[in-house]
């Protein structure tokens, strides 16, 4: 725009509102003749486009167009993009129609919106009033609409969760129905599905209900079909057993109709946990925590507090509760409550020789060694095996502490010597018991599969192998506990005994009786310090070794050859059956050929898993059996040793508990013993610290550790004796909350 | 919040729902356990002897009525032992009383937090 014109126009700004747009102060002159008539357009354009707009106008119209513009202060909402844009209002003056069309085209090109503007100021004022009225009306309409939509949305918001659930349910139903087959000929949908046999009447009742409610004329039919596919595994669980079922399923879903370890796991798992956890105080805390979870289970099931960790513990609340209860029990047996022992019945410890607890009111007795032995010491045992001499007065019999460990052990220095020995032996006993139980459970599997050959040739040698070696070890442990050795150096080491069972197999019984040997150099048996007993033990052990070792080839060889023999027999009888069948067909109707022999063979083959139908690879079967045998035999030894973790973890727990008490609480107590005032404050803070550490280290860390190891003992050592776990889970269609949340 | 008092707001910021629940649990445990521990100290349980042992000093036969009378054995005066047990019992009970007060405090915190969560739901 040319600067001159701009300046001239600006001078007239003050009065320009009152002017007409095209009224000229000078009258029309006749000389002008054909006075040019100015027309104008007004419009609004985006601010960014103004310079280009001006330039194009100038060039296209050759400077014959006059532009005046003014900024609009408030940004406007662009109806298309919804953003706020700054716009500029302009007015264009020009002459002639051609310029008008040109100008219009340029305005369209720049997407300027053109508006009509009346010439006279009166009309302009009217228009302003009209437009502002319209704006006000539109604003109120907009506002009302917004309010209305807000209320609508708020109402919908209350319902939207249930709508979403409904949609998900419908989706799930249609998704399930998509799996049906369409039977074109009969215009019906066919679904092949698995269903528990017990529930068939219920399913039929449900189908009948559905037919009735939907008013269909054709009823739905349930037809039972036979198939050779492996069915899914389904266990009915309630809220209590579902936790235990979950931890067994985590290892492997049971094969169809295999014996399930879950009912036994309900007891053995918390028990093994408790053997490793073994503190009544911690068990009480755990039981109380789980008890609260159980008490408020209805309320807690609906809330979603705490995230995945909490929901895992919540789902296992019955397991944790049992773990806590059993830990209270083992804590009472180990006599360990937050690392202190309870003296409920009075200790049975009597220092005996040379200190004795005298009678009430008398000073304590002191025995003089010389007085007791003298020249004629009291002798124990037969004349031939003389033990070192002890005064009988010092070996008075007291009834042992009735339940659990005597509380005097806690204040003694040699506590660990005793508890280590005790816990190690107990771990082996528990381990052998659990493994033996596992082997017994395998009989259920064999009987169900009607594989009596397995019963005879796998189960019996397995039991023999386990019991002859480790059952004997358990027996020796109990015998050693029960036998009194006046001279404890004559008590033989059980490990050495077990090893010598094999290594010194060739030792003759006569080696045990050597004339002229000192009492301390003869062989002693676990049952007592006599040579006869030692000989007896040696003979028994030889027999056990022979039994155990001879069970290995039985386990290894008999079954593959028997299966091979069976297969041959069946192949021959198949031939015969086929021939008779053909003969019957030729012979005419009325004859029924019974193929029982072939069928029996088939059943036996199928359930054993190898040699189905006509395939029977002897090599494969033999290798399978060899692996099974080696795994079992080596596993017996390693698994028994593996159960020693019961000892290790309980030792660790007891030590941690004791250290925590000594390092934390004892400081407060000893301060309190001297100065109660300081002790109160010290105990207040130290107890909180001790409580937090107990929960964090002993309950959570040790609890998780014991849980894991107890679980491992179940999965590996126990279940490997009988459990295959090759099934798949029965997952029925369900509209409940958890199944719905899985769908998106 | 229009309904809540400023005191409630201040207390809420000191201790949220989880903190106050934790404090409640610890103080309940403290009251019960320290109370029982005090009782066992008063009963002079042998199992707790090594806790007060560090607070005692050994005696010789001449000064006091000592327990035990053989050489090379540590022994402590009987009234020393009794006094130490009693002191320990009193400090345990004192700490239990403090925890009882703390229990009341955390109980009110839990109540306030519960009330706040109830109100904010509406």
From TrEMBL, chain A:
It is found in: Membrane. Keywords: Hydrogen ion transport, Ion transport, Membrane, Transmembrane, Transmembrane helix, Transport. Residues 1-34 are annotated as: Disordered. Residues 1-21 have a biased composition (Basic and acidic residues). It comes from the Eukaryota. Pfam families: V_ATPase_I (PF01496). GO terms for molecular function: ATPase binding; proton-transporting ATPase activity, rotational mechanism. Coiled coil: none annotated. It is a multi-pass membrane protein. GO terms for cellular component: plasma membrane; vacuolar proton-transporting V-type ATPase, V0 domain. One of its GO terms (biological process) is vacuolar acidification. The chain crosses the membrane at residues 271-296, 316-334, 428-447, 459-477, 484-503, 539-562, 646-665, 677-701. The keyword Transport applies. Essential component of the vacuolar proton pump (V-ATPase), a multimeric enzyme that catalyzes the translocation of protons across the membranes. Required for assembly and activity of the V-ATPase. PANTHER family: V-TYPE PROTON ATPASE SUBUNIT A, VACUOLAR PROTON ATPASES. Belongs to the V-ATPase 116 kDa subunit family. This is V-type proton ATPase subunit a.
Automatic annotation (TrEMBL), chain B:
The chain crosses the membrane at residues 21-41, 93-115. It is found in: Membrane. The keyword Membrane applies. It comes from the Eukaryota. Keywords: Membrane, Transmembrane, Transmembrane helix. GO terms for cellular component: membrane. It is a multi-pass membrane protein. The keyword Transmembrane helix applies. One of its GO terms (molecular function) is RNA endonuclease activity. InterPro entries: RNase_K (IPR026770). Belongs to the RNase K family. This is Ribonuclease kappa-B.
